[in-house]
Amino acid sequence: MAEDDDSSQEKTEEASARKLEKAREEGQVPRSRDLTTTAVLMIAAIGLYVFAEFMGNKIIGISRENFTLTRAAIYDPNAMIAHLASAIYDGLFSIAPLMALLLIASIVGPIALGGWNYSTKAMEPKLSRMDPLAGIKRMFSVKSLIELLKALAKVLVILGATIFVLKFFAQDMFRLVDESTNIAIIHSLEISILATIALCATTIAIAAIDVPIQIYEYNKKLKMSRQDQKDESKDTDGKPEVKGRIRQLQREMAQRRMMSNVPQADVIITNPEHFSVALRYDPETMETPLMIAKGGDHTALKIREIAKAHNIEIIQSPVLARAIFYTTDVDQEIPSGLYLAVAQVLAYVFQLRNYRKGKGDRPIYPRNINVPRDLRYNTSGKVD
């Protein structure tokens, strides 16, 4: 018994939709910092490639304006301030498109995994986060050790890629001092673009490993035990006793609605004791007779009592009553196989009404009602 309890507490089941929704409400969604870093670097590389010429021309313009000075400007403090202000403005203007792209990347990167999620609960202060003992425990936990090893691995990979890039472009960078200013500026931007692309390739590989890991850890953290599923089901749907009571009340309401339909019936066909079915048929508005109420035992007796109180004709036909009871639901048309048998009953009822009004002869009571053999049921609901 104890083994069963232990196995039921193992978190082996996938998180339910309700638990995933609750986790999002609390701000818990899968995130990958490496994916964000990769997105920012990739956008930076694209931005440098697209705006390289624009930024290079602006830098050349700033250099020309600040290194080409007249004698009067050299000795004029106000001229120096004006040059500085102009350089700052042109510098900011030159990098504005790239900064805008990086801003977009810094927003899109985090929501690329887990989607957009805003939660005030995540911002609520929690005293448990300020517990120094809990903080020390987290610092020296197995998870922290794994994170440390992952961080060291990332540093080594990026460091190796950086060293490779520096060695690859070393000769080009040394040649910059021998080039003219304009050419050196453009050349340095080209080196920056290629270096950024190379580093992006490295971070893409890191992100490709980190994203599945983050998704796996997130799903593992939210896994549920069988007991968790039972508790959630109770919280969501209510306790079994309450659900049973609700179903009982629903059945009682449905039965009351069904009983209210009995006075509208044209005929009641009985077993004569165990089953009763109420049929309604209006030749002008209905193509097929409708079964508007049915019941067994006590309910069958109640249907007959209501029928007698409203002077509705009661016909005893055990075979037909059972056939309609087992093949037709309330407010549904009778099956085509029973058309002829029901037509015999309704013809008798309508002729009897005319006779009571003084029209026509008294009809003969329908005793030999023909029900197809495949629709003949016994009291247990099985075809005879």
From TrEMBL:
Keyword NADP: no
Residues that span the membrane, as ranges: 35-52, 95-119, 148-171, 191-216
Record keywords, A-Z: Bacterial flagellum biogenesis, Bacterial flagellum protein export, Cell membrane, Cell projection, Cilium, Flagellum, Membrane, Protein transport, Transmembrane, Transmembrane helix, Transport
Gene3D superfamilies tied to this protein: 6.10.250.2080, secretion proteins EscU (3.40.1690.10)
InterPro entries in the record: FlhB, T3SS_substrate_exporter, T3SS_substrate_exporter_C
Matches recorded under Pfam families: Bac_export_2 (PF01312)
Ranges of Basic and acidic residues composition bias in the record: 8-31
Gene Ontology cellular-component terms listed: plasma membrane
Subcellular location: Cell membrane
One GO process term, biological-process aspect: protein secretion
Domain of life: Bacteria
Membrane topology: Multi-pass membrane protein
Primary role: Required for formation of the rod structure in the basal body of the flagellar apparatus. Together with FliI and FliH, may constitute the export apparatus of flagellin.
Family that this chain belongs to: Belongs to the type III secretion exporter family.
Protein name: Flagellar biosynthetic protein FlhB
Organism: Cellvibrio mixtus
Lineage of origin: Bacteria, Pseudomonadati, Pseudomonadota, Gammaproteobacteria, Cellvibrionales
